[in-house]
Each structure stands twice: as C-alpha cells, then as structure tokens.
Amino acid sequence: MMRPIMWWVILITVRQVQEAVARLAPDKAPGLDDITNRVIKSSLLVIQSHLQALMQVSLNPAHFSEPFKHMITVVLRKPGKPDYTKAKAYRPITLESTLGKVMDSIMIDIMSYLTEIYQLLSHNIMEVP
C-alpha cells in the first residue's frame, strides 16, 4: 500500500519546543530514559535547537521514535482504603519519557491549530440535546 503524498509540511519551531518544555512540571519522576523534566528545563537554552531538530526529524516521516513510546506503569495503594482487594484502592502512575512528553505536547498544539484552521469540528459539537 502506498502512502499518500503530503502536500503540506509542518515545521516545528524553537518557540514550540520552549512552550512545550515550559509546561513540564519540574519534579515529576522520569521515564525509562532517566531524563528528568528539571534537567530539560534547566538546560533548555543550550539544547533547544537540538530538541527542535529531534522533534522535526521525528515528525517529517510521521515517525514517533520507539524510545518515546516506552512507559512504565507503577500501581500505588491509596492510603486509608479499607479493602485493598478492590481496584479503586489503587492509583496507577505512568512514567513516560520526558522527550516523548515534549513531542506529545507539540503534536497536540499542531493538531489543535489545524483543527481550528480547517474547521474540522462541527460548530454544534458542544451542544447538549
């Protein structure tokens, strides 16, 4: 099966990278890559052009890099629950790659922008019958 030819190119800017990194909570636990949000945030001025290039290379062939996809899910007990045989007594925490979070954030911004520009949602989608 042949891929359709894309007639448009989306360019990721350094500003988009800066905004995505700014949205990262600094003290969240890292994923499998062991890169913390705080490290990305504090080194952004030095690495922002490299991050932009990495995100652009991932976007051009519509390829979400394999390491970005790997996550760890940790299941924690909620304190004070009377019965730990119930699923509601636990809280799953997913640890995602920090670079994956940055790429996710940029893609959400791009998809939101394109959805608005090309009016891809019905005007009455939020209406309640």
Q: How many structural domains are formed by the residues?
A: 1
Termini separation comes to 42 Å
Q: Percent range for helical residues? A: 40-55%
Poorly predicted spans: none
Q: What is Rg?
A: 19 Å
SS strand fraction: 5-15%
User: Describe the biggest sheet?
Assistant: 2 strands, antiparallel
- For the largest beta sheet, what order do the strands appear in spatially? 1-2
Overall spatial form = globular
Write the element-wise H/E pattern from the N-terminal end onward. Answer: HHHHEEH
**Overall average pLDDT:** 87
Helix/strand structural class: alpha+beta
Number of strands: 2
* Count of separate DSSP helical elements: 5
Short description:
The protein has helices at residues 14-22, 37-42, 44-59, 66-69, 98-117; strands at residues 71-77, 90-96.
What does this structure look like?
- The chain has 129 residues and is of the alpha+beta class.
- The protein has one domain (14-117).
- 43% of the residues lie in helices and 11% in strands.
- Strands 1-2 form a two-stranded antiparallel sheet.
- Helix 1 (14-22) packs across helix 3 (44-59) and helix 1 packs across helix 5.
Main traits of this protein?
single chain; alpha+beta; two-stranded antiparallel sheet; 5 helices; 2 strands
Question: Any chance you could write out the topology, listing elements then pairs?
Answer:
Elements: H1 14-22, H2 37-42, H3 44-59, H4 66-69, E1 71-77, E2 90-96, H5 98-117
Helix pairs in contact: 1-3, 1-5
